[in-house]
Amino acid sequence: MPGQEAYVTLVTNDNYALGALALGRSLRDTLTTRRLSLLITDEVSYPMRERLGVLWDELTVVDLLDSGDEDRLALLTRPELGVTFSKLHAWKLTQYSKCVFLDADTLVLENVDELFDREELSAAPDIGWPDCFNSGVFVFEPSVDTYTNLLEMAKQTGSFDGGDQGLLNLYWPDWATKDIKFHLPFIYNMVPNAAYGYAPAFLRFGRNAKIIHFIGAVKPWHHQYVPGVDAVVLTPGSYSSTSAAYDFIKLWWQAYNRTCEVSFIPLHNKTFEKQIVA
Ligand code: UDP
Ligand code: MN
């Protein structure tokens, strides 16, 4: 039943929360019938929680989980990604039978509720290593057992990249070969970088993209939006202003700007549940 299914994201600070605002707005625009469930950590400020609560049905405060694996993260040159282990809390949302996890740096362009027809663990290939799935968009089925097993694996084996993606790929090691039904089409996790990797394919299929994923250290909210002329000034060195990525970054800003128009509902209308990690 749709009421028992949800889109889920995670934000551990007010920075990534900007992503969850635009993502929440973009999901609402698709008239989804599913719930929007947001995991936050203590660091997210109260004014920001109020803004998030306008768009997300449920905010759950979770403890920060950190892989602490600095060596491996250094390989990725993304030391901040250890906190992505906090994603594992999503498996504790057992009030839902099925969820779609979306990174806070994704943007939904049209209704993707058909993703709930998929089973755990469904995801799209990673562009860096396509035999691994990218953990920015995935279908999963909450279960305390799975949560416990993932945490156990995190302690015993760790993650080969120091972040959640390395761990999840170790937990579902046969994703690439088990059954094609677990492979989400790339249009559900389209990275603008693909425009450079395979330009003709991007020209041919790019317009079919349903979910855009802004991977990498520079996120849409790091660029500057110029109101009035509806333009974005890109952070130097990140993308060219004539690239396809520019159009997607602008779409992100348009969604974000629409979150600033609504009047805020009082905080006490939302429940904040503190979950303790075993
Ligand atoms: N995240 C977060 N705080 C951080 C880093 C990451 O909340 O400091 C969450 C957020 O949902 C983010 C996801 O973890 O989208 C994965 O990180 P990111 O998207 O930066 O990784 P990338 O997609 O660039 O590999
Ligand atoms: Mn991401």
TrEMBL record:
GO terms for biological process: glycogen biosynthetic process. GO terms for molecular function: glycogenin glucosyltransferase activity; metal ion binding. The keyword Metal-binding applies. It comes from the Eukaryota. Its main location: cytoplasm. InterPro entries: Glyco_trans_8 (IPR002495), GNT1/Glycosyltrans_8 (IPR050587), Nucleotide-diphossugar_trans (IPR029044). It is found in: Cytoplasm. Pfam families: Glyco_transf_8. SUPFAM superfamilies: Nucleotide-diphospho-sugar transferases. Keywords: Cytoplasm, Glycogen biosynthesis, Glycoprotein, Manganese, Metal-binding, Transferase. It catalyses: L-tyrosyl-[glycogenin] + UDP-alpha-D-glucose = alpha-D-glucosyl-L-tyrosyl-[glycogenin] + UDP + H(+); [1,4-alpha-D-glucosyl](n)-L-tyrosyl-[glycogenin] + UDP-alpha-D-glucose = [1,4-alpha-D-glucosyl](n+1)-L-tyrosyl-[glycogenin] + UDP + H(+). Its cofactor is Mn(2+). One of its GO terms (cellular component) is cytoplasm. Its EC number is 2.4.1.186. Self-glucosylating initiator of glycogen synthesis. It catalyzes the formation of a short alpha (1,4)-glucosyl chain covalently attached via a glucose 1-O-tyrosyl linkage to internal tyrosine residues and these chains act as primers for the elongation reaction catalyzed by glycogen synthase. Belongs to the glycosyltransferase 8 family. Glycogenin subfamily. This is glycogenin glucosyltransferase.
